Amino acid sequence: MLENENPDENGSQSRHGRGMELILSAEDSKDWVYKGEGAANIVLSYIGSSDYLLGKVLRIHKVPRGRTKSTNVSSFLSRHEILLWRDIGENVESISKEVIGQLFIMNVMSPLLDPKHVDGGIRVIVSKEFLERVGKNILGQRPGQRVDVSEVDVFCDSALLINDHSLISRKSGTLKEEVCFAVEIKPKCGYLPNSEFIAKKNYFKKNVPRFEMHQILKLHQGEISQLSRYNPLDLFSGKKERIHQAISALFSTPQNNFRVFLNGSRIFGGLGGGVDKAAVCCHDRNGEIEDLKKVCWLPLDSFPELITEAIFSSAALGRLLASQKLDHYDIEGAIHAYYNIVYEPCLACKTCSDPDSLLRYSFLHDLSLEESLKIVRDYLIAATAKDCSLMISFRPAEDMGDDEFNSVFLESSNQYFDYKVNFIDLDMKPLQKMDYYYELDQKIATVYAKYMQNEVGYCNSANLSEGNEVQWEQ
Ligand SMILES: O=P(O)(O)O[C@@H]1[C@@H](OP(=O)(O)O)[C@H](OP(=O)(O)O)[C@H](O)[C@H](OP(=O)(O)O)[C@H]1OP(=O)(O)O
Ligand SMILES: Nc1ncnc2c1ncn2[C@@H]1O[C@H](COP(=O)(O)OP(=O)(O)OP(=O)(O)O)[C@@H](O)[C@H]1O
Ligand SMILES: [Zn+2]
Fold first, then answer.
1. Long-range contacts of 92-98 (CB under 8 A, 24+ apart)
2. What distance in angstroms lies between residue 446's CA and the mean position of ligand 3's atoms?
3. Which ligand 1 atom minimizes the distance to the CA of 272?
4. What ipTM does this complex have?
5. What domains does the chain contain, in order, with CATH numbers?
6. pTM to 2 decimals?
């Protein structure tokens, strides 16, 4: 591990504030172990002896398996993305996507979600050999379905060093001495859209949570083996009883929406990346959840109550919901603004035959470039807010604690807990994904409409959330 005298690109990412960079090379790979991964990144925990790196994770990019350097996507924003994001920093046209990504987190998402819940991390330089070795070392721990489709991007020359938010420790304390546990929740969209641009045939989008409709498509495509009982609207309701209901549902059907960590190690919830087998397996690990009782004096039934109290008393979910609601137009409206920006014939209008709808869309096509940019920018910010996760880390406390953390008092166990909320995965979504978003939305709506016709004949959300089997017409 080396420190380089070269100052970094924006001067603020430097380790110890000394204008130096951290460089990870082949021999450092042994100090980094697999922690988890999503669709786009792999996250590693540090197990070496550097006090600075202990309690940190390294987030490295993945690429589709077998992609060679020659097919590398551009490292810079596209012409239209430059227009879209020109206000988030200076010279966005000449800054790499990695650095833009950090500017997006710090200058766009952090003010929306509250800086105390957002950690932009610092970029560190990683050698190709480091990434190659890490990629080999972690192969055995990665879920098979993730391995089949993706691998470490060894041509990336930097990675993001972030605090491990499954841990909680006092600035003055040492991580090693403290017992802590954490939950990771991917809440997804917490409200029902009400855009006038939603087509009449898709009226049910205004009544049924997107998560619930998407479950039907996922089941149909074999991505999940049973419907989730979780309803994001409960989690975001601001009402204790409904939040508790959401947490209980996440415990019974965690899918990729819920994980529990004890002292930084995952003890409940799957790794994602395939049919939810990994998540089902984790129920066998209830024994390890029982460990919470031993180490934190927390009765198992009190655990959902504790998470509920933390969510209820924190303003974080409210902030997240407000950010999600920046999507005022729904993709059925925003797609037209997108075509104004890229200046191409609108594919959504091309496939629409309803004169009333076309008239409404023509209003969107008459908007100025600035107005179109705002609609799409807000849509993409909301997309990030609908896809991020939050980590809430806890540790038992003697009393109400101090300013460093929030505290909750758990009546059932007569105990105080310190907790801290952090958002993770606040990545900027690519503008090019707008077409995909539109197509996915149509697919979800079509399959859901078919499900309603075949199965219930009307929209009955209670029926869906019971985990009922869905029969499909051949
Ligand atoms: O489209 P969605 O709602 O399915 O969200 C995708 C997520 O699927 P989910 O339904 O949460 O299992 C998906 O998660 P998984 O890979 O399924 O764990 C990703 O988070 C994806 O984002 P990105 O492509 O990595 O930037 C997410 O894509 P975005 O829509 O956020 O761009
Ligand atoms: N700062 C962190 N502290 C602790 N664990 C983390 C942190 N960041 C990520 N993780 C773990 O690594 C996993 C993958 O990270 P992340 O969600 O950032 O990946 P991704 O590929 O961007 O996800 P997605 O599929 O949503 O795009 C998370 O689900 C979480 O368990
Ligand atoms: Zn159009």
1. 95/9, 98/123, 98/156, 98/158, 98/160
2. 19
3. 18
4. 0.98
5. 2-164 (3.30.200.110), 182-324+382-464 (no CATH)
6. 0.91
